[in-house]
Design brief:
Layout: H1 11-17, H2 22-30, H3 45-62, H4 65-72, H5 82-96, H6 98-101, H7 106-119, H8 126-138, H9 147-160, H10 171-176, H11 178-204
Helix pairs in contact: 1-2, 2-3, 3-11, 4-11, 5-9
Length: 205
Amino acid sequence: MAIGGTLSLNHLAHALLAGDDAAIRLGGVLGDFVRGQPDPAWYPPRVISGIRLHRAIDAYTDAHPDVLAAKACLPQPYRRYAGILLDMWFDYRLAQEFPYWSEQPLADFSDRLRGLLREHDALLPPALQRFVRYMEANDLPAGYADRAVLGRALAGIGQRLSRANPLDGALPLLVAREVELQRCFDAFFPQLQDFAREWIELQLT
């Protein structure tokens, strides 16, 4: 899910939607950190496919009626930052309900994802190398299941934005809208899974 043309923040969702192919999953995380066309002299073909999958997922998500409905239920001034808020909230819900969405335990999935990134450290842009250290320090993406971690992450993002914003106080709003947001997530995410699965089948078979 894209954030107003910048980075998306739902790393857990992108990693899960990439499926079981490690190279595609690596590309799914790299998609936040690679600008323009990926260099085929630097990235292996299936990693590039993962980057392209990431972008296809973002485009599908941004236009999805349930996501647009979720954004519309947020009042101003929060609606301006709805992309950030929904990215983070949906990863929180995905982490909370991970046994429903994956046969793999969340802790194992999280450990293996960080291990994959460490294994391919030489391919990672500096910003992603720094983010991997942040992931290690905060047990991410498994840590997204903790509402307190979500609140701290939103506050941290707000501090990094150039203009004044309400992100440090957004968690109570998301909690207050939990029923509406959960309804949107439950309707949307299975369709997103189908989209990603079909994209992989069409592009890579």
